[in-house]
Amino acid sequence: MSENRYGTAVARYFEAWNAGSGEQIAKAVAAAWVEDGTYTDPLADVAGHDAIAAVIGGARAQFPGFSFRLLGEVDGHHDIARFGWELVSAADGTAPVAGSDVITLAEDGRIRAVAGFLDRVPPTA
């Protein structure tokens, strides 16, 4: 399997997380995930394009002016890849949130499942 397959899948993943409008998010999710794909992290456990788009939209609303970026390299084998990411402020470059995700790919290269982990989160009051 080509390493490029993993990089392509992760690039589409970030396109979805960084899309601006609801329509753009929906389009990017459809390009990145299979129809019955899943997304699970400590705050969400959803399946299907609409539910995944809603989770992404909620995160975008919670962190306006921030974007997700790859942290380090994508590591993959078989149909599985892992990578780190951080949520970065356009205003000052700080990254208050960071995590790592493991994705499982379908035969067509789209994401079948995401297992996400939060490695750094802002303190709560």
Automatic annotation (TrEMBL):
Domain of life per record: Bacteria
Residues annotated as signal peptide: none
InterPro entries reported in the protein's UniProt record: NTF2-like_dom_sf, SnoaL-like
Domain SnoaL-like: 10-113
Protein name stated in the entry: SnoaL-like domain-containing protein
Species in which this protein is naturally found: Streptomyces hundungensis
